[in-house]
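Question (not urgent): is this output format expected?
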Amino acid sequence: MPRLESPVIRSLLLRSVLICGLGIIASLTPAAVSAQSVVSASAARDAADAEAASSAARSLSRLEADEKFSALYDRLHPDVQEIVPRTALVGWYEAEFATKRTEEMTIRDVEIGAWEWPVTGRRYERVAAISYTRPVWTGEDRTEVDGTIHLIEEDGAWLGLFGTNRESLAGMIAAFAPAETAAWTALTPDFAAPDTLATRAASFPDILHADVDRFWATQFAAAGRDYNPPDAVVGFAEPILTGCGRADPAMEAAFYCVIDETIYYSVDFRQTIEAGVGDFGWVVVVAHEWAHHIQFELGVDPGVALDRVDSPSWYALEQQADCLAGAYTLNAEAIGWLDPGDVEEAIFVTNAAGDPIGTPFDDPFAHGTGEDRVDAFLDGYDGSLAGCDLDL
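Got this back:
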């Protein structure tokens, strides 16, 4: 429509132009009003849904704070309940809040839109993503924890989704509801048969070692590969004969023997770590040696790697083992296995086990400086297996 200020408009045509202009405006007004009404209705719906979802999220957080975990399970979306047994969720929460307490969340933001649940890959077209902050006490120590919870409207109620990835959820189910095989088999179809789980439990009666085994069984199953764990984890207080020769606890702290596929450790060394650092400090030592078994399972023999031109250096294998220990730590934290301070224990032990300053990186026994080893560990802790260059 021509502007009235245009020099094209002449006074003699002003009236007709105004009439035409008003006619055009009149013809456009219903459509414009209609579009504006749609936008207003959509905004009103978003606002109403955001308010309802926020109320539901606060209710969920109160159930957490009151430790009413079974009631919380009833407020989860049916898609979650279909694969997560009540016993698994309640068991995880009981472990998570055994040494913690919390209060109702403070909601910072709500976004309504489409979202894909990473556990199953299913896309939901209308999800409330609620960002929040809540206080968490561990003993007398108070921290502010930020997070995001996703809820979906189902039959007039906003229900929560639970789980950030298949791997951690399957591990949680295996840890807290091992009898509920159907649930975690649905997540990782080749995870393990019950008799295989029983066999592994017999091989690794120490629950700390069994959790490292649980992690790798889950990873191999998710990749569609067969998993063969180490033959055993053996502690020794006196000199013993291993597949790799004689081992003296005064000389050997912990090592993996590729010949008999067994992890060996000095009992005194373990006691020193657990008493001076903590139990998870010890678990990371085992996770590092377990990683050497994984390398062996995937075709790298640490015992002969140095003799092959196309093989990774011993240093690179040690760095990768530290990275894989970090990936395990990330998973253990995700399923609620860790206690406050456990990650710090892992970093402390990894740093303390670094080579003396000046050790050449091509030394046959080089593991890396403390800083190098911590960096490798954090690559796994931050990026899981993807950060460790592992061909699984």
